[in-house]
Design a protein that fits this description.
The complex is a heterodimer of chains A (122) and B (194). Chain A is of the alpha/beta class and 122 residues long. Chain A has one domain (3-119): Rossmann fold. Chain A has helices at residues 12-23, 46-55, 68-80, 92-104, 109-116, and strands at residues 3-9, 31-35, 60-65, 84-87. Helices cover 66% and strands 0% of the residues of chain B. In chain B, helix 7 (144-152) runs antiparallel to helix 8. Chain B has one domain (5-193): Serine Threonine Protein Phosphatase 5, Tetratricopeptide repeat, CATH 1.25.40.340. Chain B has helices at 5-33, 38-53, 61-75, 80-95, 101-116, 126-137, 144-152, 177-192. Classes of the chains: A alpha/beta (122), B mainly alpha (194). The interface between A and B is medium-sized, with 16 and 19 residues. Chain A: InterPro entries: DhaM, DhaM_N, PTS_EIIA_man-typ, PTS_EIIA_man-typ_sf. Chain A: One of its GO terms (biological process) is phosphoenolpyruvate-dependent sugar phosphotransferase system. Chain A: Its EC number is 2.7.1.121. Chain A: Residues 2-122 form the PTS EIIA type-4 domain.
């Protein structure tokens, strides 16, 4: 698969839970997560996000997050990675579900982004 | 007005001590309008900074700030990590050419604005950094009382950025915790007397 998905949440279980949910419709899309801080507290960690980028077998990644500071850490991690990352300001569950289902169906990125537009919330 | 490595270390050690002393107060400020962890987050970051700089030698202010930036980015956990981390990263870049306070503070402010996509009057740390940079750039002296006033000014603002923005009007009447910790940082800087 040319594209992968990364889920970033303040809470480890939310990130894992969203992965569980969207994996159901996308068995072939590589999905990695970065939830919580390094010491398993509520928050986000740039290092965890970098690892989620590295561990994802795709070189081009669609990234989804929950709240503001997750986005800041994502943006920092994006500055440090060689992979191409697309960051979406959309509802985490609906957005990542939509994108992953469409990736599984082989939809082009441009068309996926059209579908994501109405889900933009932040 | 140019900061030396020794002065920069004193600045950061003073800030570490202040954060340790005020962490409960910072978290209390963060409770009504945020997620109540600002003090603990900053303390976690500054403890790492303290451990990494207290017995270490740094060839330049730039090297020192880079270390501080990486510690804050990786240890703080909340929004303050990338924000303070970016501030110190930008100061590190600038310090390679100049350690004049006005240049450092202006670089930090630009970094915070870029990372947080925020501007003044949104009830954030920018409401402390921005007037500070303004005064320094017009070659005015900045007192600790001036900084207290910058911090206090966030009390009557409506938050439109960050976690507090979800509360809208209900954020009025509370000092922004990031503005408060920025106040501690900049007061410690003024005290160093560079």
């Amino acid at each position: 698969m040319a594209y992968g998905v990364v889920i970033v949440s303040h809470v480890e279980q939310i990130a894992e839970g969203v992965k569980n949910l969207i994996s159901q419709v996308a068995a072939d899309v590589p999905i990695t997560t970065a939830g919580g801080t390094d010491d398993h507290q509520v928050g986000t960690s740039m290092e965890k996000i970098q690892k989620a980028f590295d561990d994802n077998s795709a070189d081009e990644i669609l990234a989804f997050y929950d709240l503001g500071s997750a986005k800041m850490n994502l943006e920092m991690a994006i500055e440090f990675t060689d992979k191409q990352i697309h960051l979406y300001d959309v509802a985490l569950i609906e957005g990542s579900y939509t994108a992953t289902a469409l990736l599984e169906a082989g939809t082009k990125l441009d068309d996926i982004e059209v579908q994501l537009k109405p889900l933009k919330i932040k | 007005m140019a900061l030396t490595v020794e002065q920069a270390k004193t600045w950061l050690e003073d800030f570490y001590t202040e954060i340790e002393a005020q962490k409960q107060y910072l978290s209390d400020l963060d409770t009504p309008i945020g997620d109540g962890d600002h003090g603990n987050n900053m303390a976690r970051g500054m403890t790492a900074v303290h451990e990494d700089i207290s017995d270490a030698d740094f060839a330049s202010v730039s090297d020192l700030f880079k270390k501080v930036a990486m510690d804050l980015i990786s240890k703080v956990g909340g929004a303050s990590g990338p924000l303070y981390g970016t501030a110190f990263l930008e100061m590190s870049k600038t310090a390679a050419g100049s350690t004049e306070l006005k240049d450092l503070v202006s670089a930090a402010l630009a970094g915070i604005e870029k990372r947080g996509k925020a501007t003044t009057n949104e009830k954030t740390m920018i409401d402390v950094w921005s007037p500070m940079a303004e005064k320094l750039n017009s070659d005015e002296a900045v007192s600790e009382a001036d900084i207290d006033q910058f911090v206090e000014s966030t009390k009557d603002m409506v938050a439109t950025k960050g976690r507090a923005s979800y509360l809208g009007e209900r954020s009025v009447g509370h000092i922004d915790p990031g503005a408060m910790s920025s106040g501690y940082l900049l007061k410690a800087l003024v005290k160093v007397g560079a």
